[in-house]
Amino acid sequence: MTSNKPPYLGFGLGLRPQHYQEILEGAPAVDWFEIISENYMIEGGQPLHMLDQIRERYPVVMHGVSLSIASTAPLDLDYLGALKTLAERVNPKWISDHLCWTGVHGVNLHDLLPIPYTEEALTHVVDRVGQVQDFLGRRLTLENVSSYVTFGQSEMTEWEFVSEVARRADCWLLFDVNNVYVSAFNHDFSTDDFLHGVPRDRVVQFHVAGHSHEESHIIDTHDHPVCPEVWDFYREAVTHFGPVSTMIERDDNIPPLAELVDELNHARSIANEVSGGKRLEAAE
Amino acid sequence: MKSLKELQESFQRGILAGDDSILAEVNDSGKEERMVLFGVYRNAYVSRLAEILADDYQQLHSYLGDQAFAKLVKAYIDANPSDRRSARWFGRHLPDFVSESGNYAKHPEVAEIAALEKALADAFDGPDAAPLKIEALAALAPEAWPQLELQPHPTAIRLTFRTNAAEIWSALKDEAAPPKPLQMPEPQAIVVWRQDFMARFKPLTTEEAMMWDEAAKGVRFSVLCEMVATFAGEDEAELRAATYLKGWVDMGMLAGFQTR
Predict the structure, then answer these.
(1) A234 within domain boundaries
(2) What pLDDT sits at residue B233?
(3) pTM, rounded to two decimals
(4) Cα–Cα dist B237/B207, whole Å
């Protein structure tokens, strides 16, 4: 299995069809792109053709939304096969998905559903990550999700659970800055506790995104620009973890590429300030 | 304590079936009741799938209007829990669902508009194949022509409509007022395929549809010409067949041929 820590890539964006032409014609100031793996598990046509061209010019990472690593349903070998086939085509710098489940009994709820933080769930997830890593022949990167409920039966905090998964399964972590912020607000924990609670050497990527504030709770909608509070927490995360490949996630109300590049430049300037003006160079 | 499996089953029933037993397993937050918080998952499930269907069936949405489309979508979501990893496939049963539901029995164009949108989506990301070029056919020796067997582009899908759904779809796509729904005097043959990364469709005359369908089965060109002659007269049958063939090649509807 590939065991080297993924390289630092700099500042990236999610690849969205609205921006294909502009990316290919304009060479925007984006260091790398993240694709939603499922969107390219298709037979042919424009999306794969565009992806082939973009991956020739930019490093690409694959980000899945339906691995369902914590589900008690059996692992979907067809899905894993398609993921592996896509990875052979894309040659991604890493493959990530979410520390969550998406359905049981053959149903996909198309959502990132929360896990009870129990020893039972931990053992189950660690076992499954091992199986997936063996199948793919590489380490997985797992992301903490936003959640809206907690379970009465939980025996540990989310960051303890996340950290134990990373240690026991020997996988990487995608630290979603916005998700920590959202879940901390929803469940009254301190973002700092989460930040300091996960192993620094496991974190290989940041997500930064916008959300919807509903007064009593926050919903992770990825349809707004990043808010000042999340930028503040991003600054803390960069200060704590050092240079980590950073990506702005926007899945709805997708603005022109230039607007996202501006937002990305904001992340860049925060990271540069934190590093004392020393410009952070991507590995490639 | 519920096992992880039981907990997930209960959570899923809570989302899909409105079963509240999951609420005994989750907590209120300091600011909100668990019913509201769990409701985020319930709402997200329906709204996400509704958004997917609205995206996949844009002209159907325009044709029905917001209210009727929302009603259709709600009924479809209730009847079809998503069973694929990618949301791309969630709406694939919608044309059949409309046909079978009975609600649109007096409006057969509705299911046909849906079928056209589904076929266009399927052609858009269907298998790749280089289109057959006219030069390749031009290079064929005259004696090889009778044995010519044509291969449709792998994205090609044949539909048969009873209504003017294709015209309605085109008008809606152009943001023009759609024509009134009409029953066609004869079934309308349509081919949907992908050319230069664009999904497109072409209505065929009855004669052209007959020749396309037989060609797609691997019937040789000499036999296709005989069929065309039988269908609408021997006069210039080969010329008509060759004209159809050239049209298909020009539009990238074929991926290749073989002669044996």
Answers:
(1) yes
(2) 79
(3) 0.95
(4) 11
With an 8 Å Cβ cutoff, is B223 touching chain A? Answer: no
Domains observed in chain B = 1-84 (no CATH), 107-260 (3.90.930.50)
What would the two tokens of residue A231 be?
Answer: 């930028």
The ipTM is: 0.95
Is A207 among the domain residues? yes
pLDDT tens across B58-102, in order?
999 999 999 999 999 999 999 999 999 999 999 999 999 999 988
Q: pLDDT tens-digit profile of A25-37?
A: 988 999 999 999 9
**Given A42, A49, A109, which is nearest B12 (Cβ)?**
A109
CB contacts, 8 Å: A76 with chain B: 85
Tell me the pairing of strands A245-249 and B198-204: unpaired
- DSSP code, position B89: G
Could you tell me the two tokens for A270?
A: 């925060």
Give the CATH number for residue A132.
3.20.20.150
Which chain B residues are within 8 Å of A116, Cβ to Cβ? 4, 7
Residues of A in contact with B84 (CB under 8 A): 108
Torsion of CA A170, A87, A80, B10, to 10 degrees: 70
**Closest CA relative to residue A197, chosen from A168, A158, A150:** A158
pLDDT at A281 over 70: no
**Domain span holding position A124:** 11-274
Counting the structural domains of chain A, the total is: 1
Condensed to tens digits (0 to 9), the pLDDT of residues A64-100 reads 999 999 999 999 999 999 999 999 999 999 999 999 9
Give the one of A44, A104, A121 whose C-beta lies nearest to B12's C-beta.
A104
The residue among A148, A150, A190 with the most chain B CBs within 10 A of its CB, best to mutate, is: A148
